[in-house]
Design brief:
- It is a single chain.
- This protein is an all-alpha fold.
- It contains 2 helices and no strands.
- Helices cover 79% and strands 0% of the residues.
- The longest helix is centred in the middle third of the chain and has 68 residues.
- The radius of gyration is 39 Å and the shape is rod-shaped.
- The termini are far apart.
């Protein structure tokens, strides 16, 4: 057994060491929490950006689908025949600008 004076010093050293370890654990935990918060915010922002991109691509896909449907109509065929090929219906008069 240790004498009384040495026991008190030994207890005080142990208490200081335990206190230091507790403070160290709290500091490390605080730093980790801060890093996790930053990562969470980054991923939330990234998720919002990706959601916006997905929505834009879905709208684009819908427009492409509508255009594909339009290209199979008689109106589209007439438009292409008039504008690109210069065709007109029989008996139709075509007016051109002098430009």
């Amino acid at each position: 057994m240790l004498p009384r004076g040495r026991r008190k010093r030994h207890n005080r050293t142990a208490k200081l060491l335990i206190g230091f370890v507790v403070v160290l654990v709290l500091v490390v935990t605080g730093i980790q929490c801060n890093e996790l918060r930053q990562r969470r915010d980054y991923y939330a922002e990234k998720e919002m950006q990706l959601s916006a991109e997905i929505e834009a691509e879905e709208e684009r896909a819908e427009e492409i689908s509508e255009y594909e449907t339009y290209t199979h109509t008689k109106a589209y065929i007439e438009e292409i025949a008039r504008n690109k090929l210069g065709l007109v219906y029989e008996g139709e008069i075509l007016f051109k600008d002098e430009n």
